[in-house]
Design a protein that fits this description.
The complex is a heterodimer of chains A (115) and B (114). With 115 residues, chain A is an all-beta fold. In chain A, 0% of the residues lie in helices and 54% in strands. Classes of the chains: A mainly beta (115), B mainly beta (114). The interface between A and B is medium-sized, with 26 and 28 residues.
């Protein structure tokens, strides 16, 4: 079975700082990778996803992530954060061609942006 | 946003009572999922469905059952609610084909079991 580890449970940054949230997964085969964001009181929204191809993927709201296969990592980045980026961020994985049998999530990173 | 609604959005119930949560989609997607979200655990899969009347267990299925009699509806039932089932429950959907692993989430149901 696959597993996902998010290194930081809480991150506090000032506006305009750069962001990098770590995500590592464990699985013996090929995977699809996702980052979701959950703003306070809201449901999960898809930020970006990686299925194949260019390992650097760009998502909404200026976020990007890089898949490094040798490190089993899929870190999320943003060059300059805004107060509105305050939210909880989840990394998730599913085996490629897994028949849509569900995502495995990390425990989440709570990001707070101070004005 | 994907056309997913969940009902009720909030519920308070007592230990030992049965509870049914409903997920309704207007996207005609094949796959539907129930997750629970708890602090420090992220989201964990309870059950999922890959078609009408086709369901399977997820990571934390004990104490839960599901039914899907129509494409658009996926019901989650707590046969006898316990305090450990206090949580936020999210429904998700995904389509067939290349993008089938991408899941879109509903607004959630906050359940409190006293």
């Amino acid at each position: 079975a696959q597993s996902v580890s998010q290194h930081n449970h809480h991150v506090i940054l000032s506006e305009a700082a750069s962001l990098e949230l770590g995500c590592n997964y464990s699985y013996g085969g090929t995977v699809n990778l996702f980052w979701y964001v959950q703003y306070p009181g809201q449901h999960l929204q898809l930020l970006l996803k990686y299925f194949s191809g260019d390992p650097l993927v760009k998502g909404i709201k200026g976020f990007e992530a890089e898949f490094i296969k040798s490190k089993f990592s899929f870190n999320l980045r943003k060059p300059s954060v805004q107060w509105s980026d305050t939210a909880e961020y989840f990394c998730a994985v599913t085996p490629t061609g897994g028949g849509a049998d569900g995502l495995t999530f990390g425990k989440g990173t709570h990001l707070i942006i101070q004005p | 946003d994907a056309g997913i609604t969940q009902s009720p959005r909030h519920k308070v119930t007592e230990t030992g009572t049965p509870v049914t949560l409903r997920c309704h989609q207007t996207e005609n997607h094949r796959y539907m999922y129930w997750y629970r979200q708890d602090p420090g655990h992220g989201l964990r899969l309870i059950h999922y469905s890959y078609g009408v009347k086709d369901t399977d267990k997820g990571e934390v299925s004990d104490g839960y059952s599901v039914s899907r009699s129509k494409t658009e509806d996926f019901l989650l039932t707590l046969e006898s609610a316990t305090s450990s089932q206090t949580s936020v429950y999210f429904c998700a959907i995904s389509d067939s084909g290349r993008d089938q692993e991408t899941q879109y989430f509903g607004p959630g149901t906050r359940l409190l079991v006293l």
